[in-house]
Amino acid sequence: MRSTALILPFAAAFALAGCSSSGDHAETPSAKPAARHAKSAPAPTIGGAVVDPAGTIAANVAKAPNLTTLVSLLRAAGVDQTLTGPGPYTLFAPTNDAFSRLQPGTVDTLLKPENKASLVKLLTYVVVPGRVTIAGLKQQVAAGGGSARLATIEGDALTVTLTGDIVTLTDTNGNHSYVTTGDVPQANGLVQVVNGVLIPDLA
């Protein structure tokens, strides 16, 4: 990580950011009555909070008890307004636990007015244009011979690999994050919950 004056306040903290998450058929006379009724899929959730697939990313993450830190930062940076727009977007959403592994005071530092530019870069780095599904990421990794590059709206790329069957994201500083809850549907995209804070080049 560069030791410039811009990123120096965050350097030690961000070193801790990584985590090292039908067809129709006629019934036969012998069919059981219970077989006539397909079970409805469970409602999608984030952190136990039920997601409204007709709601926006910004509205749904605001309901999630495990994403409160992210939501406060999105609002402070104004990036929540982007995630209210039509998109579509895919948000790789770090949990509260992910932020808690940063050096104490890092979030407060990011919220200072003089650090807003860095905060915006950090948050737009975890937003990708389009609906980026887990299956799609795995296909890209396979096509890329084991890794793929994912463009973000911030400009820097995320590197995608697989750890077993788990989608793994690596930022520009080498921090790793894993998708723990995937493909949560939104009216304007998808949310992929991740267990580490991904950091762009803040120089």
Order of helices and strands: HEEHHHEHHHEHEEEEE
Helix content: 25-40%
Q: How many domains would you count in the coordinates? A: 1
- Unreliable stretches (pLDDT < 50, length at least 5) are 1-9, 15-35
Q: What coarse outline follows from CA principal-axis ratios?
A: globular
- By DSSP, the count of extended strands is 9
Largest sheet: 7 strands, mixed
| Global mean pLDDT | 84
Strand content: 15-25%
Number of alpha- plus pi-helical segments: 8
**Broad structural category:** alpha+beta
CATH class assignment: Mainly Beta
From the alpha carbons, calculate the radius of gyration and give it in angstroms. 19 Å
N- to C-terminal distance: 9 Å
Description:
- The chain has 203 residues and is an alpha+beta fold.
- The protein has a single domain, classed as Roll (FAS1 domain).
- It has 8 helices and 9 strands.
- It has a 7-stranded mixed β-sheet with strand order 4-3-9-8-7-6-5. Strands 1-2 form a two-stranded antiparallel sheet.
- Strand 6 and strand 7 form a beta hairpin.
- Helix 3 crosses helix 7.
- It is globular, with a radius of gyration of 19 Å.
- The termini are close together.
